[in-house]
Structures are given as C-alpha cells and as structure tokens.
Amino acid sequence: MSDNKTSNDASSTDARRSGADSQAAPRSANPTAPPEAAAAASAPGPKASATERASTDAPSSASNVEPVDVAQARRDDALEDAREARASAASATAAQEASVRGQQRASTPAKPRPSLAENFEAATDAEAASTANAQSASSDSPTGRATVLPPEFTEAPDFGKLNPPPLPSTEQASAQAQPAYLRQSDSAWSVFGRVIAARARQIFDRAGQRMTQRTLRIGVSARIFHPEPGAKGLRGKTLQYLEESIAHWVMSRDVLVFMIPTVGNQGMLHTSNIRLRDYAKHLDGLLLQGGADVSPQSYEEATTRPEWPGDRVRDMYELELLHEFVESGKPVLGVCRGCQLINVAFGGTLYGDIATDVPTAGIHVNEQYDQHRHSIRFPDGSTLINMFPNQREAIVNSIHHQAVKTIGRDLNIEAVSASDGIIEAVRYRKAPFVVGVQWHPEFHRAGGAELLDCTPLLDTFLRVARETRF
C-alpha cells in the first residue's frame, strides 16, 4: 500500500509538473526564437506583479531577502524608507508563493524580515554605538581632554524634586531692584523732578538759541520838527524823522532800525499806554542821533545867545529814553548831539558856543558842514585804543558849535581835539556800553579814506547789544 501511495504521489507530482509546463508554454509567442530571445521573453517585465516575478523555475530568479541595515535606514530620509518598505513587502509575497510551489526550486532560501520590535532594538543599539564612537573621538582631541557631559544632561530628570534658582546676594538684589540709570536714593518724586528740570533746560536752550539767532533791533531817537507859527501844510505840523545816513550806517551790519517816537498825553490827539520803557524792553540798543542844540535849561544854565535856545522838548524825550535803556542794561551810542546829551544826563555841562566861550579853540563848524574835519587823539586809558589799535590820532569830521564843558559823573574822556583839547568822546563807566562821540561816523565813508573808519565802533556797539539782550 505504501508503494501505491508512493506511486500516486509521484504521478500527482508529474501531473502538476506537466500542468505547469502546459501553462508556461503559451508564454512563448515564437517557438522558433533562439534561446536568448526566449529567456528574455520569459523574464518578468518591470510592470509584472510580485507573483509573476517570483514564479520562475530559474535558480537565478530566486528571491534573496537580506536583513535591513538599521544604520543605513536611519540615515535615509522618509522617502527612501517608504520605497524600501514597498520592496520588502513585494519580496515577502514572492517568497511565500515560491515556498508554496516548491522550496526545492530555489537555490537560496529567503531570509525572514525582522519584526518592528527587532528593528527598534537594532536602532537603539546603533545609536548607542554612535554615541560611544563620538565620545571616544572627543577623547582623542588635540587637547587630550575628554568631553564629559554634566550630570543634569546624562541623568534622568526627577520631576518630584524641587530645584529653585539660587537666591542672589544682597548687592545683586539691590542692583537688580532698579535700573542702572537710577540712584540708590531715588524716589518717584526725585525722578519726576529731574524730568521737569531737563524739560525746562531744553525749553530755555531753545529760547536762547532763538534769541541769539534773532536779528538785532536797534532804536534810533527821533529828530523833532516843531510847527512854525501861522504856517500851513507840513510846516504847521509836528514832524518826527531821522536822517537817512545814520539809519543806513546801522543797517549796513544787517540789523533792523526802528525810529522811536515821542510819547505822552500833552498835545496829543490820541492817547496810548505805550511808554518809552516799553521800547527799552523790546529793543536791543539805542542810538541818539544828531540835530538841534541841547537847551541850556537841561543843564541848568541860562541862555546866553537867543539864537541858540536849543530843543527843550527833545531834551526831555531823549533824556528819559536814555535812562530807560541804561536801567535795562542795553547799550547806548550817542552821535554829536547824542554825546552832549549823555554828558548832560549824568550832571555835566556844555559850552553854549565854542567860538564865544573858548576863544583859543579851533574851528569846529563852518559852511562846509560834513566836509569840515580836524584831528583828534586818544588819551591814555581810552577804550577807543582797543577799537582802533595802532592809532593814537585820527581825522574826523567836525559839525558842532557846542561841546562838553564839565565832565559828568562816572564819565571817562575817550578822545579830545588834537589842537585845542576840546572833548570829542565820553564813556559811562558803570554800564556795559554807553559811549558818545562828537563827530558823525555815518559820514566818514563818503568823506574819503583819510577819515577814521568807524566800523569797529559800530561792531562793538552791536556786539554788546547781542550780549545784553537776554
């Protein structure tokens, strides 16, 4: 009976072999093709399934499943891992079909694919090996020192243990309590006070900058033309004016010139609250221009010549204007009559007429007016020496028949006539700049190069005006 079973098994095996041969026969479309072509045709194509690729009797077509290289798989990206997974699945399917058809046809049996747990264990071992290699490499560094990680990086964290940060010292705590720009004794009010002070300094600095950059404003006293009795038109009106030359001389240094009119309620049709002190407050300096004689009443002397009564109204107006500017600390420059008025304002007296009162004096006025000139000199101690260095004498024009007789209090003599000693310039010692000159500096440029260039005198006056206007 065993023989029959053996024969039956053999016959069934032959039948299965013949059936497989009959099924594989139609795959060859050309039976007359050479063996190389037939082998190529019988080889599975790239689009064949895993079963077709695995179902072959050729020993070389047997599936060889190699173990997965874990270290290589860790270095590959996600795309390569997916492709390798699909290839492994196909190989496993082919290996199962080949084992069903007969493991005896395969020359090399397929190796089983490691499970997920085995792969994870292998990856862990590879990571431990790479860490060990890195530590050994660091120990071989040129410094000869091995890299040792702190315990907090190698040990497992203990979540049940509290590890508060260390408390700072007293100095560190006090330093961290407030910013570095604050003082130890600072409070909210002290900081607020410093902020207000800084803001005030900023405002004052801006205001000072605007004031220093603002154009100077120089006031010029007015000449007064009194109405003639019975005259019509302008001759019957009171006129206040200034000479063009004096205004242009001051404006040549790029400053603004304002003629200051008289103020008061007597004889005025329109009253006003404006006073001369308001001009002294808002203007930067005063220039007293020439003109009519100073009245002897202004220096308490009787009139000796009825043809030279002087202008008492203008005297009172300019004396008040002069004192307002001096009290405000503003500079004052007097020209011709202005020099005589400064002397009178501080208690000095005048010669009513030089030719009559000083017979030995030279000629100080004639019909040539601004073309008449004479020589002056600067005595020792005169500040004009600093304005005109290396000049002890100079030539100026001469248009005055009055002159300083007795010098006023706190006044210095700055220049005298070289021929007769008549005082030609004075200065008030108790003010930054109160100077009077007997000549007309505004006429000197037109008079020629031989006349004294009075630009330093004007520049000094304007410089003090800029310094004292705060």
UniProtKB/TrEMBL annotation:
Domain of life where this protein originates: Bacteria
InterPro entries attached to this UniProt entry: Class_I_gatase-like, Peptidase_C26, PuuD-like
Residue ranges, compositional bias (Basic and acidic residues): 72-86
GO biological process: polyamine catabolic process
Pfam family, any one: Peptidase_C26
Biased composition (Polar residues): 1-13
A GO cellular-component term linked to this record: cytosol
Residue ranges, annotated region (Disordered): 1-179
SUPFAM superfamilies: Class I glutamine amidotransferase-like (SSF52317)
Record-given protein name: Peptidase C26
GO MF, one example: gamma-glutamyl-gamma-aminobutyrate hydrolase activity
Bias (Low complexity): 28-49, 87-99, 117-141
Species for this entry: Caballeronia fortuita
